[in-house]
């Protein structure tokens, strides 16, 4: 019997060190796809890959079909022409119909208007807050033309069988804005890969923490604060650097994992604040290395202006690490009093106060509480349940093939 086909659309190369929750979620969907499905990914390639040509590939032990639309050297940086625009233009005029199609950006679905099959749109941020967020308008180009964005959205949402958001406020926003499709809008749990992100015993955490401190030439009792994400205005790592400076706590060190357009500005701010010996920028790292850093850090810090439910927060909690977050997205609703602290104001002083609260009283944020907060979001359970529902729907419609 023919297998149902899932085609995933997003502008990245899964074999590159891409930074971001969308990329991580897609990788998890590929890794945990059951054998009953054929999985295809339409992404971007490198100079060694043929573009516009399907190729057999393997990712995380799973065979997939991969179609790179164009070469993209580094998807952590914006180019003069937005990558989403290039990706959408490359899809126009093609037909990539399949039984199931997952879109992680709205714009590429413009090319899919006449494609047959079940289409799902994943909403990863609170779009309403995103459009209104203060700061550099160029961070999200649509913020300069919100009326145009919502006009395009109102046209395209009608084609989707499902509109899924990991942010409850965003899901409610879509239900109210588009009442004709409100029955298709739902909240979906994000999920972390529990085979990669897990905790250690307290003794192991301390031993590995000392190893890292010595490797970096620091006192072996150093406590680590971790940031991981794109160096982009949405994530606002500059706010965290300023908050860390205001913390002014001895034997603490800030680790910044990620890459992006703010890298130069962050380095300048570190120098301006006299933090060169107290902050280490590690760049983009492999997911296994990030997992090690989560396991040994004392705090994970999220300084974003807007979010959905960041996977990196779930990954930190699953590693037994408490979270300090700004009031953005779903994270404040997720955290319990003993698994993290929410900053009520987006100021360096408020960030510093929250960091200090965890640094000075780690006993109030035990690893077990952090792990318990993350446990309902384990990928194997959530992703496999998602595929099970897809398979049931496919069987109900009589295996109506789309080749």
Commentary on this structure:
With 403 residues, this protein is of the alpha/beta class. The chain contains 14 helices and 14 strands. The protein has helices at residues 21-31, 83-91, 127-132, 146-156, 168-177, 202-215, 237-247, 263-272, 287-296, 311-318, 331-334, 348-360, 367-374, 379-396; strands spanning 5-9, 38-45, 55-59, 62-71, 100-103, 118-123, 162-165, 185-187, 223-228, 252-257, 279-283, 299-302, 323-326, 340-343. The strands form two sheets. An eight-stranded mixed beta sheet has the order 3-4-2-1-5-6-7-8. It has a six-stranded parallel beta sheet with strand order 11-10-9-12-13-14, with helices on both faces. The radius of gyration is 21 Å and the shape is globular.
Comma- or semicolon-separated keywords:
single chain, alpha/beta, eight-stranded mixed β-sheet, six-stranded parallel β-sheet
């Amino acid at each position: 019997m023919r297998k149902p086909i899932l085609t995933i659309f997003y502008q990245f190369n899964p074999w590159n060190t891409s930074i971001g929750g969308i990329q991580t979620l897609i990788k998890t969907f590929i890794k945990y796809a059951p054998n009953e499905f054929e999985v295809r990914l339409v992404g971007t390639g490198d100079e060694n890959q043929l573009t516009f040509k399907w190729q057999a590939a393997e990712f995380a032990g799973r065979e997939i079909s991969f179609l790179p639309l164009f070469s993209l050297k580094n998807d952590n940086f914006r180019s003069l022409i937005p990558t989403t625009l290039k990706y959408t233009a490359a899809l126009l005029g093609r037909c990539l119909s399949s039984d199931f199609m997952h879109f992680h950006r709205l714009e590429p679905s413009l090319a899919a208007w006449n494609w047959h099959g079940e289409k799902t749109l994943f909403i990863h941020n609170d779009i309403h807050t995103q459009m209104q967020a203060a700061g550099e308008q160029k961070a999200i180009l649509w913020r300069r033309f919100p009326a145009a964005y919502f006009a395009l959205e109102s046209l395209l949402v009608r084609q989707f069988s499902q509109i899924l958001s990991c942010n409850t406020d965003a899901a409610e926003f879509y239900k109210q804005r588009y009442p004709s499709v409100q029955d298709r809008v739902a909240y979906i749990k994000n999920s972390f890969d529990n085979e990669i992100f897990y905790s250690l015993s307290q003794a192991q955490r301390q031993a590995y923490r000392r190893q890292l401190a010595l490797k970096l030439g620091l006192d072996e009792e150093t406590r680590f604060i971790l940031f991981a994400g794109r160096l982009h205005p949405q994530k606002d790592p500059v706010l965290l650097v300023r908050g860390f400076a205001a913390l002014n706590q001895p034997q603490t060190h800030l680790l910044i994992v990620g890459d992006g357009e703010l890298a130069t500005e962050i380095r300048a701010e570190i120098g301006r604040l006299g933090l060169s010996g107290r902050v280490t920028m590690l760049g983009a790292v492999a997911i296994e290395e990030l997992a090690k850093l989560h396991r040994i850090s004392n705090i994970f810090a999220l300084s974003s202006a807007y979010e959905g439910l960041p996977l990196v927060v779930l990954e930190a909690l699953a590693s037994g690490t408490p979270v300090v977050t700004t009031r953005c997205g779903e994270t404040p609703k997720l955290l319990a009093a003993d698994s993290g602290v929410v900053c009520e104001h987006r100021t360096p002083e408020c960030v510093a106060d929250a960091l200090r609260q965890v640094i000075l009283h780690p006993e109030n944020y035990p690893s077990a509480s952090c792990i318990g907060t993350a446990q309902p979001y384990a990928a194997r359970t959530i992703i496999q349940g998602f595929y099970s529902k897809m398979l049931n729907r496919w069987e109900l419609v009589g295996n109506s093939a789309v080749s």
